[in-house]
C-alpha cells in the first residue's frame, strides 16, 4: 500500500463525496437486509395461521404488511445503491481525470532525454492503462469493500442471534470461496496483462506498417508483412484463448459455491428443524437469502484484493515517472530580458545516452540583429548548437550567455517564448494548415497567418487546395510535400516574431529558386532579430553576417562569405562544387 499513499491527497480532496458515498452504502445495505428478516416473518405468519394461532383477517393484514415492507425496503435500497454508485464511482472518475492531468503535466516538464530513454508506448500505457487500474482501487475497490463489510457485519449479527450453529456452518465455505476467487482473479490479471502487451505489440506493428505503407509497396514486401502479421495474430489468439479459459471458470465456480452453501443451509437447517433447535422454517428461508446475499460480496474480497494489488503495481509505475526531476530546471521565476546577444564560450557537450561528444570547445559571438550561418558535414554538431540555445540540454563545459547572462539564469519559459525554431524534420499536427501556423502565435489574425505564409513562400500552394487554409493535414487529411511542410513550419516560426530565430536545415527540400525567394523575404523579417541558419548550401549562408564551419564538433573555419571564399578550406570547396552544379 506504500505506493498508493500518493493518492491520499485525492482521498482528502474528495472527502465529502466519499463520506457521503460511504454513509449511503451503509444505509442501502441496511435496507436490503430487511428482505430476509421479513421473509422469515412471512413464514412464521403462515405457520401461525396454519396452526390456527391467528385469524384469516390478521393473517392477511400481517402478510400484506410484510410484503409492503419488503417492496419498500428493496425500493429504498435500490435508490440508495444508485446514489452509492453516483458518489463513489464518480469520485473514481474525478481521480482518474486528476491523475491523468498530473502525469501529463509531469511529462510536459520532463526533458528531451527522458523521451529518448522511454518508449512512447510505455509513456502512453502509464497515462491510460495504469491510471485506469488505479481508478479501480478508488471506485469499485472502495465501494465493494464497504459493501462487504456492512453486509457481513449486519448479516452475521442477525444470523448468530437467530441460529448460531447454523450460522457457523454457513460461514465456513465463505473464506474458501474468497481464496479461490482471489487466486482466479490473479491468474486472470496475469493472463490479461499478457494480452494487453500483445495488443500494444500488434497495434504498434500495424501502425508502423500503415505509416510505412509506401516503402512496403515500393519494395513489394506486402506478402512478407502480411505473413508477419498472421504469425503475430496467431500468437495473440493463443494468449486470448488462454485468458478466456480461466475467465470461463469464474461464474461456474460462483454458481457451484452458492449451490453448495444453499444445500448446506437446507441440510443443516432441515436437521436442526427436525430436532427442534430451530423452531421455524422461516429461519431456513432467511438463511438461504443471507447465503445468496453474502456470496458475491465475499467473492469480491478476493477480487478487491487483486484490484488493490494491480493498482499498487500501476501506481508504482506512475510514481516512478512522477518522481523524476526534470534535468533542465527553471530556477528563475521572474521573466528575464532577452534581446538576442548570444555568446558561446568554449562550449563542449556530450550526449549522455550515446556518449558522443557533439561539440568540442566551440566559441562564437553573435550580436543582436546579426545572422549566423552554420555549415558542416552531417553529424558535425550543427543541430546541437541550436538545441543548446533553446536549452533543451545543459552543457558540460564552457558557458552560453544571452544578453550577457548565463543561459541557465534566464527564465526558461521566457527564453523559449523568444525563440522561433524551425526543426530539420518539420512536424505538423493533424489539424488545419491555419492552426498549424497559428501554433506559433495562438491569437494571430487570419491576415497575420496569410502574411507569414507569404513570407515563407507557401501561400500560393495553400490557396490551391480547395479548402485553402482550412485544409486538414496529416492522418485525417492531405499530405504536404517535403518542401511545403518545411515552409509551413517556417511560417509557424516567423508569425511568432521572436527575438531569436533558429532555422535547422529547413530549406533542404525546396529548390534553389524558392530558397532564394524565401531568403529574400527573411531579410526583411530578420531586421533587428538574431538568427542562426543551419544549412548544407552556401546559397543559404552567403548573406549571413558570420559563417562558421563545423567538423566533428569543432569550428574549423570562421568568417564572412567573402573572406571564406578567398581562403582555402571546406567553405571554398563547397562553394565551388555548388557553383559548378548550378551552372
Ligand atoms: N539526441 C541525441 N542523442 C545522442 N546523440 C545525438 C543526439 N543528437 C545528435 N547526436 C549525435 O551528436 C552528433 C552531432 O549531431 P547533430 O545532430 O548536432 O549533427 P548535425 O551537424 O546537425 O547533422 P545533420 O547535418 O545530419 O543534421 C552526431 O554524432 C549525432 O549522432
Automatic annotation (TrEMBL):
Residues 342-577 form the ABC transporter domain. It comes from the Bacteria. Keywords: ATP-binding, Membrane, Nucleotide-binding, Transmembrane, Transmembrane helix. Residues 19-310 form the ABC transmembrane type-1 domain. It is a multi-pass membrane protein. It is found in: Cell membrane. Gene3D superfamilies: ABC transporter type 1, transmembrane domain, P-loop containing nucleotide triphosphate hydrolases. This is ABC transporter ATP-binding protein. The chain crosses the membrane at residues 12-34, 63-83, 141-160, 166-184, 248-267, 287-308. CDD domains: ABC_6TM_TmrB_like (cd18541). GO terms for molecular function: ATP binding.
Amino acid at each position: 500500500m506504500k505506493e498508493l499513499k500518493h493518492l491520499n491527497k485525492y482521498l482528502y480532496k474528495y472527502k465529502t463525496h466519499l463520506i457521503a458515498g460511504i454513509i449511503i452504502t451503509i444505509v442501502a445495505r441496511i435496507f436490503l437486509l430487511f428482505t430476509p428478516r421479513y421473509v422469515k416473518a412471512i413464514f412464521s405468519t403462515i405457520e401461525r395461521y396454519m396452526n390456527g394461532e391467528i385469524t384469516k383477517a390478521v393473517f392477511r393484514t400481517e402478510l400484506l404488511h410484510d410484503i409492503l415492507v419488503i417492496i419498500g425496503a428493496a425500493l429504498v435500497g435500490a435508490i440508495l445503491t444508485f446514489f452509492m454508485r453516483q458518489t463513489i464511482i464518480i469520485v473514481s472518475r474525478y481521480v482518474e481525470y486528476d491523475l491523468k492531468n498530473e502525469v501529463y503535466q509531469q511529462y510536459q516538464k520532463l526533458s528531451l532525454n527522458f523521451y529518448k530513454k522511454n518508449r512512447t508506448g510505455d509513456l502512453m500505457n502509464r497515462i491510460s492503462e495504469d491510471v485506469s487500474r488505479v481508478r479501480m482501487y478508488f471506485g469499485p475497490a472502495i465501494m465493494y469493500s464497504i459493501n462487504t463489510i456492512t453486509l457481513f457485519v449486519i448479516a452475521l449479527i442477525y444470523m448468530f442471534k437467530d441460529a448460531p450453529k447454523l450460522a457457523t456452518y454457513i460461514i465456513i465455505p465463505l473464506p474458501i470461496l474468497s481464496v479461490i476467487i482471489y487466486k482466479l482473479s490473479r491468474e486472470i490479471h496475469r493472463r490479461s496483462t499478457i494480452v494487453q502487451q500483445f495488443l500494444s505489440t500488434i497495434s504498434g506493428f500495424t501502425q508502423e506498417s500503415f505509416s510505412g505503407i509506401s516503402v512496403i509497396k515500393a519494395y513489394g514486401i506486402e506478402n512478407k508483412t502480411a505473413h508477419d502479421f498472421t504469425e503475430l495474430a496467431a500468437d495473440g489468439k493463443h494468449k486470448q484463448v488462454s485468458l478466456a479459459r480461466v475467465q470461463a471458470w469464474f461464474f461456474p465456480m460462483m454458481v457451484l459455491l452458492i449451490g453448495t452453501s444453499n444445500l448446506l443451509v437446507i441440510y443443516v437447517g432441515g436437521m436442526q428443524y427436525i430436532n427442534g433447535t430451530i423452531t421455524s422454517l422461516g429461519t431456513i428461508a432467511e438463511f438461504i437469502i443471507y447465503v445468496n446475499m453474502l456470496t458475491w460480496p465475499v467473492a469480491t474480497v478476493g477480487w478487491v484484493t487483486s484490484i488493490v494489488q494491480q493498482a499498487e503495481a500501476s501506481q508504482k509505475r506512475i510514481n516512478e515517472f512522477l518522481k523524476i526531476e526534470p534535468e533542465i530546471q527553471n530556477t528563475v521565476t521572474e521573466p528575464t530580458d532577452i534581446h538576442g546577444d548570444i555568446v558561446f564560450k568554449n562550449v563542449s557537450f556530450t550526449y549522455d545516452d550515446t556518449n558522443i561528444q557533439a561539440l568540442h570547445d566551440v566559441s562564437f559571438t553573435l550580436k543582436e540583429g546579426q545572422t549566423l550561418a552554420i555549415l558542416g558535414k552531417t553529424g558535425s554538431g550543427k543541430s546541437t548548437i541550436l538545441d543548446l540555445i533553446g536549452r533543451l540540454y545543459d552543457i558540460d563545459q564552457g558557458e552560453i550567455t544571452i544578453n550577457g547572462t548565463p543561459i541557465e539564469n534566464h527564465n526558461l519559459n521566457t527564453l523559449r517564448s523568444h525563440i522561433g525554431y524551425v526543426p530539420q524534420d518539420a512536424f505538423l499536427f493533424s489539424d488545419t494548415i491555419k492552426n498549424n501556423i497559428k501554433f506559433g502565435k495562438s491569437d494571430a489574425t487570419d491576415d497575420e497567418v496569410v502574411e507569414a505564409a507569404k513570407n515563407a513562400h507557401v501561400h500560393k500552394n495553400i490557396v490551391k487546395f480547395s479548402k485553402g487554409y482550412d485544409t486538414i493535414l496529416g492522418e485525417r487529411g492531405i499530405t504536404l510535400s517535403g518542401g511545403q511542410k518545411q515552409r509551413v513550419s517556417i511560417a509557424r516560426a516567423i508569425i511568432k516574431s521572436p527575438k531569436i530565430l533558429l532555422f535547422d536545415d529547413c530549406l533542404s527540400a525546396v529548390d534553389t529558386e524558392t530558397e532564394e525567394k524565401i531568403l529574400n523575404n527573411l531579410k526583411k523579417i530578420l531586421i533587428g532579430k538574431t538568427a542562426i541558419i543551419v544549412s548544407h548550401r552556401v546559397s543559404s549562408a552567403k548573406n549571413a553576417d558570420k559563417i562558421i564551419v563545423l567538423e566533428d564538433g569543432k569550428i574549423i573555419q570562421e568568417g564572412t562569405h567573402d573572406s571564406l571564399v578567398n581562403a582555402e578550406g571546406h567553405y571554398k570547396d563547397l562553394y565551388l562544387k555548388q557553383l559548378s552544379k548550378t551552372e
